[in-house]
Specification:
The protein has 11 helices and 4 strands; from the N terminus they run H-E-H-H-H-H-H-E-E-H-H-H-H-E-H. By secondary structure, the chain is α+β, with helices and mostly antiparallel strands.
Length: 367
């Protein structure tokens, strides 16, 4: 190309005037207006009743994940293919975005693939998250303001269903877990009760502890009786002979009482058969009783956890709070005609300056 033909005037027409004029004609006659409907939402967690039951929170720990995490899940859901399919079936999203036939730059192709449709949808539905307050702002663009608002409202409705289903699904999983713990606790309780009944039937004792206490009382009374009889015997020996009837009878009584006293002591702490030792039986029974009481406490805890989990499956654990409902736009926000033209003009002027500098450098070297 002859550089002499690239005069500054021609360069201005080619690099500045022509692009700006073409862009102005496009924005004035072809570019379709896009209206924006905006809404702001936040997630609110309901208080859990499990904490009111001692220990129940341990079984139901993790029921409420952090609100920020759920907000991130919700943001991903708004841009999901599953939601887009549901919205398209209900509102005809593809039909609306492909209706503007003149503006090829902003409309969706009628034969667009599923992936292209999803990418286009994500470019028209913006979801931004406020890191400080964990709120979501949803901005929906549409060629018609009423459609943009309806699409925004449907997204909010579907988002609330998503949040409820997500929390209820987690609650149902916790209910299944708590019911399994209840079944195990019930089994342990029945086993502990069976061991107590078997012990009582084997040893023919309802409560060895009570029996041991009664035996101790009997031993104490017999010891006191022996002491009184020995004192009485010493008194008789002061004026009676050893072979007198009263002395022999009293000595026989003392001997019989002492023999029975040894038997009672042997039953409590002696070295006889295990079934005859009340002390050992009482200790074993106390162990079984403590095991049964612990199993009962575990059963009560599991039962309370099941009831709380069952309540959580029916009530709303998470709520989608609509801070600002979907708005109905009065003026088109896109395209930003003056801003885009001004940006294009500045870019063209910069390009014109660069081209002029390059041409001047080449001419200098040619000379």
């Amino acid at each position: 190309m002859d550089l002499k033909t690239l005069t500054p005037r021609r360069l201005k027409l080619a690099l500045v005037a022509l692009p700006v004029v073409v862009a102005a004609i496009y924005f004035a006659l072809v570019a379709a207006d896009r209206y924006v409907s905006e809404s702001t939402v936040a997630l609110q967690r309901a208080g859990s009743e499990a904490a009111a039951v001692p220990g129940a929170a341990m079984l139901l720990a993790g029921l409420n994940p952090p609100s920020r995490e759920e907000t991130l899940y919700l943001r991903q859901y708004v841009h999901s293919l599953g939601l887009l399919r549901a919205l398209d079936a209900k509102l005809g999203v593809r039909k609306h975005y492909s209706a503007q036939r003149l503006d090829l730059a902003t409309r969706l192709r009628e034969d667009a693939s599923q992936e292209d449709f999803l990418s286009y949808y994500r470019s028209r539905v913006e979801v931004s998250m406020d890191e400080l307050s964990s709120t979501l702002t949803i901005r929906v663009q549409g060629f018609d303001p009423e459609f943009a608002r309806r699409l925004n409202q449907e997204i909010l409705s579907a988002s609330e269903n998503f949040v409820n289903e997500m929390s209820h699904k987690l609650a149902r999983e916790q209910l299944t877990f708590a019911e399994g713990e209840l079944a195990r606790a019930s089994e342990h309780l029945q086993g502990a009760k069976t061991e107590v009944l078997a012990f009582q039937g084997k040893n023919k004792l309802l409560d060895p502890t009570v029996q041991a206490q009664a035996s101790g009382t009997v031993v104490a009374e017999m010891q006191a009786s022996v002491t009184r009889a020995e004192a009485e015997l010493r008194g008789l020996l002061t004026f009676l002979n050893d072979d007198s009837y009263q002395v022999k009878a009293l000595r026989a009584q003392i001997a019989a009482t002492q023999a029975q006293l040894e038997v009672e002591r042997s039953r409590a702490t002696g070295s006889g058969k295990k079934s005859d030792r009340l002390g050992a039986l009482a200790i074993e029974f106390e162990s079984l009783k403590m095991k049964s009481e612990f199993a009962l406490d575990a059963y009560k805890l599991a039962l309370a956890a099941v009831e709380n989990a069952r309540i959580d499956t029916t009530r709303k654990l998470k709520s989608l709070v609509v801070i600002e409902p979907a708005t109905l736009a009065e003026t088109a926000e896109y395209p930003r005609r003056l801003y885009n033209l001004a940006t294009l003009l500045v870019g063209c002027l910069l390009l014109y300056g660069v081209v002029r500098l390059v041409i001047a450098t080449i001419r200098e070297h040619q000379d």
